[in-house]
Amino acid sequence: MVGRTLIRGGLVITASDELHADVLIEDGRIAALAASGTPAAEAFAAERTIDATGKYVIPGGVDAHTHMELPFGGTFASDTFETGTRAAAWGGTTTIVDFAVQSVGHSLREGLDAWHAKAEGNCAIDYGFHMIVSDVNQETLKEMDLLVEEGVTSFKQFMAYPGVFYSDDGQILRAMQRSAENGGLIMMHAENGIAIDVLVEQALARGETDPRYHGEVHKALLEAEATHRAIRLAQVAGAPLYVVHVSAMEAVAELARARDEGLPVFGETCPQYLFLSTDNLAEPDFEGSKYVCSTPLRPKEHQAKLWQGLRTNDLQVVSTDHCPFCFVGQKELGRGDFSKIPNGLPGVENRMDLLHQAVVDGHISRRRWIEIACATPARMFGMYPKKGTIAPGADADIVIYDPHAEQVMSAETHHMNVDYSAYEGKRTTGRVETVLSRGEAVITEREYTGRAGHGVYTPRSTCQYLN
Questions:
Q1: Which residues touch 316 (CB under 8 Å, ≥6 apart)?
Q2: Which of 269, 314, 334, 347 meets the CB 3.0–4.6 Å disulfide criterion with 256?
Q3: Cβ neighbours for 389, distance < 8 A, ≥ 6 positions apart
Q4: Rounded CA gap, 375 and 323, in Å?
Q5: Is the pLDDT reported for residue 277 higher than 80?
Q6: How far is C-alpha 325 from the chain's CA centre?
Q7: Contact between residue 320 and residue 65 where contact means Cβ atoms under 8 Å apart
Q8: Is the model's pLDDT at 1 over the cut of 60?
Q9: What is the chain's Cα-based Rg?
Q10: What digits encode the pLDDT tens for the residues 44-86?
């Protein structure tokens, strides 16, 4: 570990401020900030100096929704914790919160222990866990209390995937009631899976087997209906609710209505819904399978409403739902039957750059970029101000970002362990140059200088929007 590091001359951007400042790092944390050129800044001394002139100095990204090594549809997500966290670092993300999975008939503890074993000693950046609750019973509910106490403070439930992750309304209500007591946050995959399964069966019977039909059967109205139902169940339970990967304008409207009523309801969207559409799902020669995820991509007109939701704070977070499956040998499992295509796409490396492109395009401000990608996810999941900002005492998770560099996104050059890019050929302005994780350089001027095992498990407090 280098003793002290000084970052000089950059524009420091947080969710609340922009300031030309020098940043002093000591023992893995931010020791001090001072406006560039002032006597206080001139007095800073360090063993290592990073020149950030003309660059942004931003907090490392917090991606609160990833699925490394997730078992799905008879296969596994292609990124391990080692490859996935390395790719995250390349993209300027320094903390992920992944999902540990409870299998039906097993305890939460077994699932959590299994995910700890996958991640420990393998991560390039820091990580935490949410818990997927697939089997609500009295023992599970007691375990939820214990997990909150030890820093796993959020629980994901599914209104989709009957027979796998699905919870019925009664199970959801019980878990929400428990979280209302223990301070946990329920995260909801809001789609009416029972109805969708009927539509899948009917589509296949009609011979509609191509990837584009995945988008057609996962109807926006069934996302909106489930979102509404989840909100009302949470209201009955007196519990907060976080709806994951919101893709449809009708679902955004449900969230906006609930928030206007003063309910503690939060929404997340993902870059794929902001930049891709059903046009991608309809690509010929089975190429559309690369874009099969749930909730699905929507027609382009939904994008404007998602951007609006991010500007009005009806959506608060942009995470990736990074869940990559290779086209060859994995996505191809669904040739002739779209329902067998593994659901998910890669993105952990692309999020910060795509959202900077949104700044360039005028969708959001620079500070809102940092808010939705760093500060709010850190607050939402109990890691702020240790993560998500640049302030004295915070972990020195810092990205030196070149706002003028241009790049073309491509599977040829990305670092995710997957054989295609969802954004192949997309030109973006802005690029990560150097990444520090707790003061250690993981990316140094576009070279990987990190190591597996540097990243440590990060227990979390409860949602900081509820205190």
A1: 266, 267, 268, 372, 376, 380
A2: 314
A3: 14, 15, 59, 374, 375, 378
A4: 23
A5: yes
A6: 17
A7: yes
A8: no
A9: 21
A10: 999 999 999 999 999 999 999 999 999 988 899 999 999 999 9
The mean pLDDT value of the chain amounts to 97
- Cα angle value 306/281/244 (rounded, 5°): 40
**Helix/strand/coil for 58:** strand
* Cα separation, 141 vs 152, whole angstroms: 14
Q: CB neighbours of 179 closer than 8 A, spacing ≥ 6?
A: 144, 155, 185, 186, 237, 239, 240
Alpha-carbon gap, residue 48 to 70, rounded angstroms: 39
d(CA 418, CA 72): 16
> Measured at the alpha carbon of residue 289, what is the angle toward residues 305 and 254, in degrees to the nearest 5?
25
Identify whether the C-beta of residue 267 lies closer than 8 Å to the C-beta of residue 306: no
Asked if 237 and 173 count as a contact pair (C-beta separation under 8 A), the reply is yes
Q: For the segment 294-347, what is each residue's pLDDT rounded down to a tens digit?
A: 999 999 999 999 999 999 999 999 999 999 999 999 999 999 999 999 999 999
What pLDDT is attached to residue 3? 85
CA atoms of 185 and 176, how far apart (whole Å): 8
Of the candidates 131, 376, 151, 353, the residue with the CA atom closest to the CA atom of residue 267: 376
Q: Over the stretch 11-22, which tens digit does the pLDDT of each residue have?
A: 999 999 999 999
Q: What is the pLDDT of residues 180-228, one digit of tens each?
A: 999 999 999 999 999 999 999 999 999 999 999 999 999 999 999 999 9
Q: How many CB atoms lie within 10 A of CB 284?
A: 8
Q: What share of the chain is helix, strand, coil (3-state, %, to 5)?
A: 35, 25, 40
Whole-number Cα distances in Å, 233 to 169, 219, 237, 267 = 8, 21, 6, 16
Helices of type H across 183-316 = 193-205, 212-217, 220-237, 249-260, 271-275, 278-281, 301-312
pTM as predicted: 0.98
Strand partners, 130: 99
Write out the two tokens for 444.
């140094």
Q: How far is CA 125 from the centre of its chain?
A: 14
Over 70: is that where the pLDDT of 262 sits? yes
Q: What is the pLDDT of residues 130-173, one digit of tens each?
A: 999 999 999 999 999 999 999 999 999 999 999 999 999 999 99
Q: Look up residue 325 and give its two tokens.
A: 């499956």
